[in-house]
Amino acid sequence: xxxxxxxxxxxxxxxxxxxxxxxxxxxxxxxxxxxxxxxxxxxxxxxxxxxxxxxxxxxxxxxxxxxxxxxxxxxxxxxxxxxxxxxxxxxxxxxxxxxxxxxxxxxxxxxxxxxxxxxxxxxxxxxxxxxxxxxxxxxxxxxxxxxxxxxxxxxxxxxxxxxxxxxxxxxxxxxxxxxxxxxxxxxxxxxxxxxx
Length: 196
Known about the structure:
Elements (H helix, E strand, L loop, with lengths): L3 H15 L13 H6 L2 H17 L9 H29 L6 H28 L4 H26 L4 H26 L8
Helix pairs in contact: 1-5, 3-5, 4-7, 5-6, 6-7
């Protein structure tokens, strides 16, 4: 079970990393226990994710009933939390960075809370109509770029990879996310995932 002080310390570490302060990486223990406890972030982030999902659902074609939509989205959420850490284990081993793997995933997982919260705020702002559509598009693009930079810095600071390695990790994460989103959208539309 995770404690409130550990949650606070982890979120503070993620916040420091968001400010491009590499000292944030040292607030995450490089242990298997810290690795597994970092997945509590999935539960903490879920309410914001659910609201974000509702705001974005107007742009997704739903061809299945409410129950199956919940199953598909729930399954996608869980897979999204485990797919990238799973792949990164092998990347870390192949690149000789496995000694920092637990610390990196802990930092990566807790940082997702900040990313989802930021995306929710920007999405809610653009959906509210309080800003012109063109400005909303620019804000969203800027947010995505900032998140990519944040993810890259986490890899650089916590996994101790060079800048180009961090870029490669961000690209891998993006590819995994796009594949999972594509599959989720196809299933929600009532289509087969592997159809042409």
